[in-house]
Each structure stands twice: as C-alpha cells, then as structure tokens.
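Weekly puzzle thread! Below is a chain. First person to post its structure in token form gets bragging rights.
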Amino acid sequence: MPTTTTQYNKLSITMTSKPIHTTKDIQNPNTPALTIDGLIDAQVAFMQQWLCKQAEPLSMEAWQWFGGQPLSKYISRDDLQYLLNDWLLNHPLSEVMRADIRDILHTVIYHPVNDNVPLSELVDDTQVATLADYIGSHEQQRNILIHTLIGNETFTDLLTQTLYHAINDFMETTLDKAGGVGKLMKLGRSSFEKVTNKNLDEKLQTYLHRNIKDLAHRAEANAKAHLSNEEVARLLVTGWARIKAQPISHIQTYLRDEPDNSSIDHIEASIGQSYNRLRMSPYLHSLVAAGVDTWYRNHQADTIATVAASLHIDEQAMAQLTPTLLPIINDALASEWLTAHLREMLQEFYNQPNIKASLGFNDQ
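Winning reply:
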C-alpha cells in the first residue's frame, strides 16, 4: 500500500506540473526580437510612471526617514559657522534684494489699510503699561526719561528762542504804539548798546538761555527727587493714550515720498550701510560664532524632526505642502534631463559584459 501511494503521488506531480520553458522556448519566430534599447525604453517609461503614482506616499516616507535622523549626523557646528560667517556675511546685499526692500517698505508704509487701522493695533495697552511699570520701577531708566522730557538741551534751546521772539515781538509792538515814550525807550536801547558795546538782542538771548537752562536743571532735579514710580508710569500711559487712536498712516507725515527725496530710499540705504559695516566687523563674527555654539550645543542630540518642529514643520505641515510640490515632482520626473540620465544609467547596466552575456538579447 505505501508503494502504491508513493507511485500515485509521483504520477500526480508529473501530470499536473507545468514544463519550465527557456527564453528560446517562448520566442515566437513571428515576434520581433527584444533589444537592449527597447528594454531600456520600456523600463524608463515604467519607472517614470511608477514614481509619479508613488510620489505622494514616497514624499511622506522620505520625510519620516529624514526627520528621524540625528542632526549631528549630517550637520556639524563648523558647517553652520561656515554657512553664516563665510558665506552669508561674506556678501553684501544684492541690488535685487535692495530694490525688493525699498518696494516692500513703500508698499507696507503707504498701503491704504493704514488709514483705517489705529496705532493701538500695533501695540497693545498692556504692553505699554508693562513698559511703563518697568521704566517707572528702575531708577536709571526713570532718570533718563525725566532728563529727556525736562533736561534736554535741545528743548532748552527751543524754549529760549520761543521766549526771546515773544518778548522781542512784544517790545517792538509796544514801542511803536507808545509814541514819544516809545522813541525815548528806543533811544535808551541804542545808548545802552553803544556804552556796553553789546547788542541788546544777544544780551537778552544769553540771559534767557542761562536762566532757562538753570531752571530746567532745577526742574529736572526736583522731578527726579519727587516723581514717584507710579507718577512716571502714569505719565507714559497718558502719553500713549493721546496718540493710540491715531491711524498708522500718521507715520507718513514724518516721511517724504518724492522722486528725488524719498525717505524709503534713505531708510534702505541706511540698512544697507549698517549691514555692510557690521558683516565685516570681527565683533559681529564673534557674536555669530558664540550664538551658533550655543544653539548647536542645545540641539546637537535632537533629531531633524525635533528641530523642524520648533519651526512648526511637522508631518501635518508636510502633508499640506506635498500637494503643492507634486506638480513640480511630476514635471521633474517627466523631464528630458531625467529621462536621459535614467537611460544612460540603464545602458551602463546592460552594457556590462556579464549582464549582456547572461541575457543573450539581440543588440541589433
């Protein structure tokens, strides 16, 4: 019985098994022979179609793989130092970038929306209150503010000139209307100037400047001695309350927008000049190097995904970005340069002697 069963199984296998055909067996005399060039063309087309269909999932898988790699595996501290110091800071702002800065500043500053948006939209009341409390609670900052408001030299000169013109105008107007008394006073003024060899106007200005400057210094000293933290803070808050309702476009009143005298041009030129001066400064290079060292020390053990997450770049962001990138990827896959490179790569593969001999394809 066992022998019979064994023979039955062998017979069954023989009857049901399909014969193995070689390449020569399946070639039909009526079918054109497959050449290496034809095979390459078919493979290139297949690879391009397959990659286009798989572009989206492959992009996400590539991001997942890349995000899981440690930062230090691909980026060193020296790489970052070179990027910032030797590459970025080694070049001035290009003319294209400078033109973009001017155009963007002009668009932003003179945009019509600024007419309907108050300054309070830029700075919140709580921010002003916090700053006011900070300045009011720090003696050095408080004294600087008081000096700026009361003891400023420019303010003293302006007040002196204002009072001088007011007194001079009053005297001239009064003397003209005083008749004989006015003429007598003018004669006395002339006699004074001849005797003292000094101009009365200059004497008056010197007197006013000396006394007003002294009064300003006294007022500043009294303010520093008696103004409390709360009063200084309230002064700042009150000043902000007076201007916060003005539209942002009010800033335009301090600017010029003329072809030959544009404030935007001056601002941009100042930015470019400052950047060119600082980018060549050993001081800035030292600060950049120290900043890179600190950042790299804090993040060298992180994965690239962790670093990207600090910039709000995660899988969800990549998923939203992928549809935007797909047209670029598809166009690149279908481009002539990629097709040529794929064909060249496959030709190199099939032209290997061992591959060509083992396949036995017709090269014609």
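Puzzle host: Confirmed. Bonus trivia for everyone else. The chain has three domains: 28-69+313-359, 77-108+270-309, 118-246.
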